Amino acid sequence: MEGKKTPLYETHVKLGARVIDFGGWMMPVQYSGVIEEHERVRSSAGLFDVSHMGEFLVSGPKATEFLNRLVTSDVSKMTPSQCLYTPMCYDNGTIVDDLIIYRHNPGNYMLVVNASNIGKDFDWAKKHAPSRVKISDVSDSTAEIALQGPNAEKILTKLTDCKLSDIAYMHFKDDVKVAGVKALVSRTGYTGEDGFEVYTGSRDAVKVWDALMKAGKDFGLQPAGLGARDTLRLEAALMLYGNDIDDTTTPIEAKIGWTVKLDKGDFIGRAVLEKQKTEGVKKKLVGFELVEPGIPRHGYDISEGVAKMGYVTSGTFSPTLKKSIGLGYVKPEYVKEGSQFNVIIRGKPVKARVVPTPFYKRKKEGV
Amino acid sequence: MDYPKDLLYTKEHEWARVEGDVATVGITDYAQNALGDIVFIELPKKGATVAKAKGAAVVESVKSVSDVFCPVSGTVVEVNESLSGAPDAVNKKPYSDGWMFKVRINSQKELSDLMNPEEYEKFASAQKH
Fold it and tell me: Which end of chain B has fewer CB atoms < 10 Å from its terminal CB, N or C?
C-alpha cells in the first residue's frame, strides 16, 4: 500500500527530494543532502513540510478544565495566543504523546500532535472528554509549513502585513494573511533556531510554499527534509516520540520534568509522576557524547563494564558540533555531567561521557 | 552515475580494482549516492582475514549503518587511514580518495563471480531509487 501524501508531495518530487515512508507518510527525507540542509537552517533558513502532523480543535466552556486534566502542564495559566509544550500521560505516568497546545481563548484550543499518533491521541482525548467539550480532527484539511533559521523573520515579513516581531517565542497569531492566504502563524519550531510554523488549509499549501521559496531566495532559504529535522532537533535535545519518549517512559524519567505541574490539581498520571518527583526514578534520560570513534544509534545498549544498564534512544553525528552525540536512559547515578559509561556498538564498548543539554544553543541577538 | 571501466563490481555495490594479487576495495558512486552524507567508516585491521560476500567494513551515513561486503576472500594488507578524518571522501571521490582497504587475494577464481562495468551499470540502473 502506498503511503499517505501531504498536499506538498508533488512539490517535493519536483524539487528532487528523496521520499521515504515515515510512519505511513511519504515524506521528503532530503533534497540536496542532510548535512547541507542542516547547516543551512543554522546559518540562514530552511523550509520544512510538516503537514503530516495532526491538528485537533477543542472547544466548549469546559475546554480548559478538560485539557488541564488531560495533560501534565498547566493549561489554566495560558494566555490567549500562547503555545504550550506538554506531554499527555496514561494513568501509569508513561507518555501517550507530546504535543503543543494553542490557546485562542479559554473555550477554544488547537492541539498539534505527532503524525504517527493521530488516531491514538484522538481516541484518548475523546475517551476523557466531557460531553460538552467538542473535539474534531482537522489534520487532513490542515497543512503545516515550518520556516526555520536566523533569516526566517526577514523572509516571512515579505509575505505578510502581520508585524512578526510582535509574535514572541511560543506565541501565535491567527487569521494572518500569508501570500494572500489565511493562515495561523506561530513562533515555534523543532530545530533550536528562531522560526515560524505556518498553518493553512491543505488547498493553500502549495501557494504558501512556493511564495516562501521565492521570498527566501535572497536569504539563503532552501527546502529541508526529515533527515535534517532529526539532526537539528537532536542537537537542540528536543524529544522525539517513539525514540526518546513513549509508553514505557514518563516525563520525569525523560528530560521534560519541567512540564509536570503538581500545583495545578488532579490530572491523568499524577499519582505516579508525583511519586517519581519526590522519591526519584530508576532510569533517567541523559545527553552524552562519544569520546571514542563511532556513532550511537537508537536501540544500542548502554553498559557499565559489561553489564547492560541502559539504552540509547537517539544518536547521530552532529553536523554543527562535529562529534557524535546521543540521548539515552541510564541508571540515576550516571546523570551527573562527566559521568562515563559505554555504548555498545557492533558488540564493542565505546566510551561515552555525559554532557549538558541542549548540545547546541543558538546565540540570541539583542533581546 | 560513474562506472569506471577498470573495475569489477558486486551486487552490493562494492568495487574492486585488481592489480596482480591485490584488490583495492571501495563502494560505488551508486552506493555513496544512495547512502547520503557519510560521517563514519569502520575499517578492518591490517592483517585481518576477510571472506568474500562477508562484511569487512562498516559505513555510516547520517541516517543509516551499512556493511561493506568484501568482493574477494583474502588478507587485508592496507587500509585507508585518511578516511577516519575525512569519511566524506567516499561521497566525493568513491573510486579514488574514497578507497577503503586492500586485500591480498586468496583465489583469483573468485573474481569471475564479479560483474564487469557494463553488467554493473545495467544492474545498478535497474535498481529502484
Answer: C
* Torsion, CA B5, CA B11, CA B14, CA B20, rounded to 10: -60
CATH of the domain at A290: 2.40.30.110
List B residues 52-81 in contact with A (Cβ-Cβ < 8 A): 58, 60-63, 65
Interface test with chain B among A345, A348, A350, by most B beta carbons within 10 Å: A345
- On whether any CB of chain B is under 8 Å from the CB of A338, the answer is no
Residue A135 phi, psi dihedral angles, 5° rounding: -120, 130
Determine whether the interchain pair B36/A227 forms a contact, defined as Cβ–Cβ distance below 8 Å: yes
A160 in the same domain as A223 = yes
Let me know whether A162 and A305 are in one domain: no
Does residue B127 belong to the interface with chain A, where contact is any CB pair within 8 Å?
no
Q: List, for residues A235-284, the tens digit of each pLDDT value.
A: 999 999 999 999 999 999 998 999 999 999 999 999 999 999 999 999 99
**In this structure, what C-alpha cell is assigned to residue A254?**
525523560
Q: How many domains does chain A have?
A: 2
Domain final residue, candidates A196, A214, A235? A235
Question: Do A43 and A149 share a domain, yes or no?
Answer: yes
Q: Give the CA distances from residue A176 to residues A166, A189, A199, A278, in Å, rounded to whole numbers and listed in that order.
A: 13, 18, 10, 45
Contact A61, A130 (CB under 8 A): no
Which triple of cell numbers denotes residue A214? 521565492
A55 assigned to some structural domain: no
Asked whether the whole model's pTM tops 0.80, one would answer yes
For A67-108, the pLDDT digits (tens) are 999 999 999 999 999 999 999 999 999 999 999 999 999 999
Chain segment A209-246, per-residue pLDDT in tens: 999 999 999 999 999 999 999 999 999 999 999 999 99
Q: Chain B within 8 Å of A30 (Cβ-Cβ)?
A: yes
Residue span of the structural domain in which A343 resides:
282-355
